[in-house]
């Protein structure tokens, strides 16, 4: 019997299967991937560096949806705004990966390169080195929190009796559609305003 035209296992298939499991269950294990692919668990270790290696493959796969060209835009705040929107869209497509990826150190070279570009953007704009990582992490908090919000039910507040919480009922009515999108844009603008103010203060102090 000749060899199959398509290899039974490779990193792409392993990553795709792991992502399917996380999208469905919020988690994965190496034996679960092996069962779904119809192979022995040990066979996966010929292609990936265990569970941690698969987590980094997932990080690369989801992060590939982020348009890193946005970090080449100028001025810096327009670059961050565009990057944040693209970042949010990429993770909103797979929100259940967020808790998994946020509790594992970043090792994927392509993802580290994206951080390198973001750091360079802020340093070139004049941000002092101690402020750079707090600015990036704060932006990620806005982005990833909003990506999770997009996965939440549209009606997050169920009021059994409007008269018991009349102001909440009125506010929910007034919010209308696209609540999550509007909340994200508000948080993003507040973040950028604060970052601009910090940069201006640093420049005036210098």
TrEMBL record:
DNA-binding region: 29-48
Transmembrane intervals: none
Domain HTH tetR-type: 8-66
MF terms (GO), sorted A to Z: DNA-binding transcription factor activity; transcription cis-regulatory region binding
Pfam families listed in its UniProt record: TetR_C_1
Alphabetical GO biological process terms: negative regulation of DNA-templated transcription
PROSITE patterns linked: HTH_TETR_2
Keyword vocabulary terms for this entry: DNA-binding, Transcription, Transcription regulation
Organism superkingdom: Bacteria
DNA-binding is among the record's keywords: yes
Name of the protein in question: Transcriptional regulator
């Amino acid at each position: 019997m000749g060899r199959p035209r398509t290899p039974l296992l490779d990193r792409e298939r392993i990553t795709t299967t792991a992502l399917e499991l996380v999208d469905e269950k919020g988690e994965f294990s190496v034996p679960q991937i092996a069962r779904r692919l119809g192979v022995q668990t040990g066979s996966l270790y010929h292609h990936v560096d265990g569970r941690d290696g698969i987590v980094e493959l997932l990080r690369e796969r989801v992060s590939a949806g982020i348009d890193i060209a946005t970090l080449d835009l100028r001025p810096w705040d327009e670059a961050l705004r565009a990057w944040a929107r693209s970042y949010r869209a990429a993770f909103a497509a797979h929100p259940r990966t967020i808790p998994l990826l946020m509790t594992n150190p970043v090792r994927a070279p392509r993802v580290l390169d994206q951080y390198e570009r973001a750091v360079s953007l802020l340093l070139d704009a004049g941000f002092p080195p101690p402020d750079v990582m707090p600015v990036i992490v704060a932006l990620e908090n806005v982005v990833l929190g909003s990506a999770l919000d997009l996965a939440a039910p549209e009606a997050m507040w169920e009021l059994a009796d409007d008269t018991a919480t009349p102001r909440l009922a009125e506010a929910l009515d007034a919010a209308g559609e696209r609540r999550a999108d509007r909340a994200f844009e508000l948080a993003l603008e507040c973040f950028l305003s604060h970052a601009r103010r910090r940069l201006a203060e640093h420049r005036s102090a210098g």
